[in-house]
């Protein structure tokens, strides 16, 4: 698979929707993840990321303008021991709760499917990072309608052991803008990850479409000891 420029992938797509990047820093020291949200409607754009314990939560920027919280207010990131869960919906809680009961990442997601937002049927994208005793692996998942038909749910899980330095995988909800919005196709894209947490954060944020971007979360986890640094960027500041 050809390695793509994450910057180019973002700049050439005006509406990838919500996206997850997971991989390893170029120096091999950090497990890296980024999660961003975009919006076309006032309700979707009226959001910010806020820290919530070791994770984050979406919150209405202006509570008076919040019309429907059902699919936009959730915890995208939660930490369960040495595992960091990143998703685009309330399946974060499903994964957390069921893995805490000894189910696997894939088993947990068997209880969920794509979002009920006809006609888009937005895919549920999820990732999990496992950092322990100097080792690191991760997995990603997408649950999507069968080519736009809500009668069937297609489930894909991708696992990456001992990921290579400076490489990551990128999965997002939509191939681009449209009505209905076309769901992501194929396996997660192989992309480059380079620079410090601040340089990487700036690169991702500045590559997202100016009109549609809403919020960005980036975390670098030290593979040697599990400590982490986090950056949050909100358009509504």
How would you describe this protein?
This protein has 237 residues and is mostly beta strands. It has a single domain (16-30, 41-234), classed as Inosine monophosphate cyclohydrolase-like (Glutamine Phosphoribosylpyrophosphate, subunit 1, domain 1), CATH 3.60.20.20. The protein is built from five helices and 13 strands. It has helices at 6-11, 42-45, 91-99, 105-109, 197-207, and strands spanning 19-24, 30-38, 47-52, 55-60, 77-80, 83-87, 124-132, 135-146, 149-161, 167-172, 189-192, 213-222, 228-234. The strands form three sheets. It has a six-stranded antiparallel beta sheet with strand order 11-10-1-2-12-13, covered by helices on one side. It has a five-stranded antiparallel beta sheet with strand order 5-6-7-8-9. It has a two-stranded antiparallel ribbon with strand order 3-4. The N and C termini lie far apart (38 Å).
């Amino acid at each position: 698979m050809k390695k793509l420029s994450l910057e180019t992938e973002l700049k050439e797509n005006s509406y990838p929707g919500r996206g997850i990047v997971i991989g390893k820093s170029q120096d091999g020291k950090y497990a890296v993840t980024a999660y961003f949200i975009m919006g076309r409607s006032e309700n979707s754009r009226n959001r910010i990321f806020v820290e919530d314990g070791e994770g984050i939560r979406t919150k209405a920027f202006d509570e008076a303008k919040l019309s429907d919280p059902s699919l936009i207010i959730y915890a995208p990131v939660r930490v369960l021991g040495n595992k960091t869960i990143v998703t685009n919906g309330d399946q974060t809680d499903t994964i957390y709760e069921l893995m805490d009961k000894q189910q696997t990442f894939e088993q947990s997601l068997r209880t969920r499917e794509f979002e009920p937002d006809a006609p888009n049927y937005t895919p549920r994208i999820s990732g999990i990072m496992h950092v322990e005793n100097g080792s690191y692996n991760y997995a990603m998942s997408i649950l999507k309608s069968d080519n736009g038909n809500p009668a069937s749910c297609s489930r894909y899980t991708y696992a990456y052991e001992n990921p290579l330095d400076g490489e990551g995988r990128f999965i997002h909800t939509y191939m681009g803008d449209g009505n209905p919005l076309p769901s992501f196709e194929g396996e997660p894209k192989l992309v480059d990850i380079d620079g410090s947490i601040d340089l990487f954060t700036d690169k991702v944020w500045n590559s997202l479409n100016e009109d549609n971007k809403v919020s960005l979360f980036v975390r670098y986890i030290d593979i040697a000891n599990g400590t982490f640094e986090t950056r949050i960027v909100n358009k509504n500041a």
